[in-house]
Amino acid sequence: MIPDDEPDGDWTAPGVFRCAPGVYRIPLPLPNDGLRAVNIYAVADGDGWTLIDSGWALARADDLLRSALARLDSGLGDVRRFLVTHVHRDHYTQAVVLRREFGMRVALGRGEQPALEVINGPDRRGPAHLGRLRRAGGQALLPRIAAQGEAPHDSTVWEFPDDWIEDGAEFVLDAAAGGERVLQALATPGHTQGHVVFADHGGGLLFSGDHVLPRITPSIGFEAVTSPRPLADFIASLELVRARPDAAMLPAHGPVGMRVHERVDELLAHHAKRLDATLSAVQAGRSTAYEVAEALPWTRRDRRLDELDPFNAMLATLETSVHLDLLAERGLVTAGEENGIAHYTT
After folding, report:
1. Rounded CA separation 278/174 (Å)
2. Residue 175 pLDDT greater than 90, yes or no
3. Cα angle value 201/202/204 (rounded, 5°)
4. What are 117-157's pLDDT values in tens digits?
5. Buried-exposed string 2-28: b where 16+ CB fall within 10 A, e elsewhere
6. Is residue 227's pLDDT more than 60?
7. Domain Metallo-beta-lactamase, which positions (predicted)?
8. Per-residue pLDDT tens digits for 67-89
9. Confidence of residue 176 (pLDDT cuts 50, 70, 90)
10. Burial 80-96 (b: 16+ CB within 10 A, else e)
11. pLDDT for res 177
């Protein structure tokens, strides 16, 4: 018997959990300490399944996905398609690998096409975020990041999808008792340019990917090709979701149980507060994103920048950059550049 999902339980525990009629959450592991799992959702589709997101292409994740589907009296051969919320490896790469063996279709937001073209292009020159980190004044982090080593690039897990998802596209699933479930894709750029969420209006559900998460705020613009204004995109996407009917949130990371509107309000308030704190740091004389990030608290534990591991310190610095750029767009700070480093003043 499949247990009902428990919002107060350990959301990272392996297994399969019923979170709505015909909808099951399958947590799969991630190879890091900061974020330990990603939620995959299996949605009944006739005599098979549509899966929302796929997990990181890891042997352990593959084993647990097979085991979870077996508990649903199914196998990977019963998966008709993957609908992927965005191109990050913990959501996309396992779908690419499984497609070779089982032939299911993989669909991804149209806005992710430029990133995949760069990742698969002949002129790929290494991680673009390192250049953005230099522009943010974060040179002090570069040796720490280099010491961690860069994972070798494996182009085989970054193949293109079968289908590009357009904003507003509808996917009709064969639900139980001869009915239909319609999932509508909504473009929600910000975390990545091509991020999409899937609204099940009939079921009152929103598969929110990394756009709306219950316990953390997603990184903004960490991708191979960034938007000129990723934070403005993200805020606009939050407002878009807030303007739609409320729904139960089924996030990619964290437990179920929250309502979408409640969490969107918290995220909008968080970024408003963060913009105020960023402006105050510039007014106090800090001019680069790295210097501002050193003045701000990080994580729910209010840690200092130098207490974060190198990767998360980089994410914090880059997120500070997009907050500064939005302040500049709003005319609250003045942006300039000297020796390839962005500086901000009031």
Report:
1. 49
2. no
3. 60
4. 999 887 654 556 888 999 999 999 988 887 766 666 688 99
5. eeebeeeeebbeebbbebbebbbbbbb
6. yes
7. 37-253
8. 999 999 999 999 999 999 999 99
9. low
10. ebbbbbbbbbbbbbbbb
11. 59
- Asked if 214 and 252 touch (Cβ cutoff 8 Å), the reply is no
Helix 89-102 with 59-71: angle, nearest 10 deg: 70
Superfamily of domain 17-120+158-258: Ribonuclease Z/Hydroxyacylglutathione hydrolase-like (3.60.15.10)
Residue position matching structure tokens 């998966």: 79
pTM over 0.90: yes
Q: How far apart are the C-alpha atoms of 10 and 28, rounded to whole Å?
A: 13
**C-alpha of 63 from chain center:** 23
Residue 221 pLDDT:
72
Average pLDDT, the chain: 94
How far is C-alpha 287 from the geometric centre of its chain's CA atoms? 29
pLDDT given for residue 152 in this prediction: 62
**pLDDT for the residue 33:** 66
Q: Using an 8 Å Cβ cutoff, are 165 and 111 in contact? A: no
3-state SS of the chain is CCCECCCCCCCCCCCCEEEECCEEEEEEECCCCCCCEEEEEEEEECCEEEEECCCCCCHHHHHHHHHHHHHCCCCHHHEEEEEECCCCHHHHHHHHHHHHHHCCEEEEEHHHHHHHHHHCCCCCCCCHHHHHHHHCCCHHHHHHHHHHCCCCCCHHHCCCCCEEECCCCEEEEECHHHCEEEEEEEECCCCCCCCEEEEECCCCEEEEECCCCCCCCCCCCCCCCCCCCHHHHHHHHHHHHHCCCCCEEEECCCCCCCEHHHHHHHHHHHHHHHHHHHHHHHHCCCCCHHHHHHHCCECCCCECHHHCCHHHHHHHHHHHHHHHHHHHHCCCCEEEEECCEEEEEC
- C-beta of residue 81 within 8 angstroms of C-beta of residue 106: yes
Structure tokens given for 179 = 């009915």
